[in-house]
Specification:
The structure holds two protein chains of two kinds.
Chain A: H1 18-27, H2 32-64, H3 78-85, H4 87-117, H5 124-132, H6 139-149, H7 158-170, E1 180-181, E2 187-190, E3 193-196, E4 205-211, E5 235-241, E6 263-268, E7 271-277, E8 283-286, E9 295-299, H8 318-344, H9 347-355, H10 360-388, H11 392-396, H12 403-406, H13 409-417, H14 426-454
Helix pairs in contact in A: 2-14, 3-4, 3-14, 4-8, 4-10, 5-8, 6-8, 8-10, 9-10, 10-14, 13-14
Chain B: H1 18-53, H2 57-62, H3 67-70, H4 78-85, H5 87-120, H6 126-136, H7 142-155, H8 161-185, H9 189-197, H10 202-213, H11 215-230, H12 234-239, H13 247-252, H14 262-282, H15 284-294
Helix pairs in contact in B: 1-14, 4-14, 5-8, 5-11, 6-8, 8-11, 9-10, 11-15
Classes of the chains: A alpha+beta, B mainly alpha.
């Protein structure tokens, strides 16, 4: 009897309502005399508050939206035209569209998957508790939580810390970010690395002094570089870090260390013909080079800046990032709602399908999902309403520089009417409010129809 | 006959052949692993906030919170001490209580009276009133901000606790009436009839029969409404002034310089979460029921 939500997971319904109500009406005949003032007494406060705080504002907003920002002159639908032409509001409209199309469907799907997967897990209750927990905390606090997660510096934000670690597993970071050959030593810098201007042949020796890092950042295996002597039939050289206190530039000595692990390429007529890697003392050699003239290149990958992760809160990713926070908050709700619906599916139907030889996937696809249809629809509609009202997350997560890119109508309404700076336009603010009201109207009618059907 | 929604849908393993069972065992091990990872994914962000609140301003500006595992010496209660000494934040925390408690109590009182009338009295337009209330469930508060701001300005209560509370009460009512009426209507008529036979009037029936039986629904409503108001930012952002602002509003003013305010923002946010999390864990069932029923709000 304490069941608040109908078996199909729909709106709460008192069970066995029709019967007691019918009986009750008969039993009440004797009291209609005092009912009128009594009804007013019981209903009065609620009706008064609803009329003043919801009824009157809807009417007032509709009227107010037809006047200019100060309310002194009638402007017709001009405010609505502004909503659709003002670049800020257009971004908000676009983002609202993205939110509505992507987020509720994604969360409903995720909720369905989790509800089904947890069906047979012993610790399902704990799992659902964990996923439901974000519903208890404020959207503001959730916003702070995800603002922390998505900080751009991979040393601070968890998302980028993970992104960088995963990236570096597949593409090891270069050892010498930002290092370059000493200027004007005869190399040119192109997008694919540093290439010598001169050409060399077997028997030649190259000296490649480098700058752009401090000696203490060199890899531990680096040892002092030694001059390389010319060898017959072999093109060789040494790459070293040309930085030491009180030394002469472009010369070895003073404990200047070689740079191990640098890839060096010999290029002939634009194609790479041989590749070598520098040893711990910075030396490299191309032993079996055919006679001819070669350019030597150190590819850019040697000196690539480390991958710093993604600009999560930049203008392109900020909306997906806020949606991910919303997913974190609402998935527990969707899962729990759908699980309640799942529990109401007759076990016989599933068993019958299994007995007929259906695989688990077929049972899911052909029996579970169709039977859950109405519940999924309720979850979807509920989430769409919720999405349209998202304010706090968009207010908190983006930094000031990209808040305009993340804007949604619910936030834009506040900014236009109450926000610092541009605020104070009560005409356009009212128009956005009315627009939001109109957008939730279909959901309102959906709820009313469902309510009447359930009676 | 209580349904615990967190348990709902958790069924025993269905009967299957040995081969399917073997593959299912492997599969379910995989499923378990995935679910464990997902649960971790849900917990880590909250833990990150907590860990950040335990680290000093300088640490938070230079390294990530996961350093608490490798450098536990960084852990400090200083942020919490600073917060306790910050009179603006402490006053705003009190304001959050001053707003949430009356807004919850009033919604229950006013909502229960109206729900009783709708469930057990008879008057013209009754069904229409119920339909209107269902419709009002989804009205976005944005539509009321400007009109009520003007009304409050005229009445001279703009910026007061009263204004914030009344707004929350009004927007909490559709759900309160809706939830309680449905629950009250499910109470067997015989119980009310019996009380009436004993000479009880409406008030007495309401107090002695309907309210006690309706307690589970009232509990769900109370928890839902309380957390809703406690967690609000937008309503207070518009209607409160610095003397009546709740903690969410007090903290949002520090957002502009997020990087240098992590100590205050993380700590303040975590403190503001303590009550909601305590309520959540203490009254899971009522909370989940309330949220499932009130999700359209």
């Amino acid at each position: 009897m304490t069941q608040l939500v109908a078996k199909d997971g729909g709106l709460p319904v008192g069970e066995g309502e029709a019967t007691p109500r019918a009986r009750h009406r008969r039993g009440k005949d004797g009291r209609s005399g005092n009912a009128k003032w009594l009804v007013v007494l019981y209903l009065g406060p609620a009706v008064l508050l609803l009329a003043v705080f919801i009824g009157y504002p809807v009417v007032y907003s509709i009227v107010r939206s037809l006047f200019d920002r100060s309310g002194s002159s009638f402007v017709g639908f001009h405010n609505y035209v502004s909503v659709f032409t003002d670049p800020n509001t257009r971004i908000a409209l676009r983002n609202n569209l993205i939110w509505v199309l992507v987020a509720p469907a994604f969360v409903t799907g995720l909720g369905l998957i989790f509800a089904v997967l947890t069906e047979r897990i012993r610790w399902a209750v704990a799992f659902r508790l964990v996923l439901f927990m974000p519903m208890a905390i404020s959207l503001f606090a959730s916003g702070i939580i995800f603002r922390l997660v998505y900080q751009e510096d991979p040393g601070l934000g968890l998302a980028n810390a993970v992104t960088v670690s995963v990236h570096d597993i597949f593409a090891a970071p270069s050892q010498y970010p930002g290092v370059l050959p000493r200027p004007a030593d005869g190399t040119t810098s192109t997008s694919d690395g540093f290439t010598t201007v001169r050409t060399f042949g077997p028997g030649d020796v190259l000296n490649l002094p480098m700058v752009g890092m401090t000696p203490n950042k060199l890899p531990a295996q680096a040892v002092p570089a030694t001059p390389v002597h010319a060898t017959q039939g072999q093109l060789s050289g040494v790459v070293w870090l040309d930085i030491a206190l009180g030394s002469k530039i472009n010369t070895l000595g003073h404990g200047k260390k070689g740079m191990p692990g640098i890839t060096v390429q010999a290029i002939r007529n634009g194609t790479v013909t041989a590749t070598a890697i520098t040893a711990d003392d910075g030396t490299f050699a191309f032993p079996d080079l055919a006679p001819g003239s070669y350019q030597i290149r150190m590819p850019a990958s040697n000196f690539a800046q480390p991958f710093r992760g993604l600009t999560w809160l930049g203008s392109t990713l900020v909306t997906p990032v806020i949606i991910s926070a919303w997913v974190w908050i609402t998935t527990g709700f969707a899962m729990t709602f759908i699980a309640a619906g799942l529990a109401a599916i007759p076990r016989d139907a599933l068993e019958a399908a299994r007995v007929d030889g259906a695989t688990e996937w077929q049972v899911f696809r052909r029996v579970t999902v169709p039977l859950l249809g109405p519940v999924l629809l309720v979850v979807l509609v509920t989430l769409i309403i919720n999405v349209l009202k998202v304010f706090d997350l968009v207010f908190v997560i983006p930094p000031g520089s990209t808040q305009a890119d993340a804007n949604v109508l619910a936030l834009q309404m506040w900014q236009v009417a109450f926000g610092p700076g541009s605020g104070g336009d009560l005409g356009e603010g009212s128009a956005i409010g009315v627009l939001l009201f109109l957008v939730v109207m279909p959901a309102m009618l959906f709820n009313i129809r469902r309510f009447r059907r359930e009676r | 006959m209580t349904t615990d929604f967190l348990v709902a849908g958790v069924a025993g393993t269905p009967r299957r052949g040995p081969l399917t069972r073997a593959t299912a065992l492997l599969g379910s091990g995989f499923v378990r692993l995935i679910l464990a990872v997902i649960a971790l994914l849900w917990l880590v962000p909250i833990f990150g906030l907590f860990a950040s609140s335990l680290r000093g301003e300088a640490d938070n500006a230079t390294t990530g919170w996961w350093k608490v595992f490798t450098v536990p010496a960084e852990i400090t209660a200083k942020n919490y001490q600073d917060l306790l000494a910050n009179s603006t934040v402490m006053q705003s925390l009190l304001n959050t209580v001053y707003i949430s408690v009356p807004a919850t109590a009033l919604v229950i009182g006013i909502g229960a009276l109206a729900a009783y009338a709708l469930a057990w009295m008879r008057f013209p337009g009754q069904d229409w009133l119920m339909v209107i209330i269902v419709g009002l469930l989804v009205v976005p508060i944005q539509v009321a901000l400007i009109p009520i701001a003007k009304l409050y300005g005229d009445l001279g209560i703009f910026g007061s606790l009263l204004g914030v509370v009344l707004f929350h009460v009004a927007f909490g009512l559709p759900f309160a009436v809706f939830l309680l009426r449905n629950f009250f209507a499910g109470i067997p008529a015989d119980l009310l009839e019996a009380a009436r036979m004993d000479g009880a009037r409406e008030w007495r029936i309401f107090r002695k029969v309907v309210l006690p039986i309706g307690l589970p629904a009232i509990a769900s409503l109370a928890i839902f409404q309380f957390l809703w108001v406690w967690n609000d930012l937008l309503v207070a952002l518009v209607f409160a002034d610095p003397s009546s602002q709740p903690i969410t509003v007090a903290l949002q003013s520090q957002l502009r310089a997020f990087g240098t305010n992590v100590d205050l923002l993380a700590t303040g946010s975590f403190v503001s979460m303590i009550i909601p999390l305590a309520v959540f864990f203490a009254f899971q069932r009522f909370f989940v029921q309330g949220v499932l029923a009130g999700s359209t709000k």
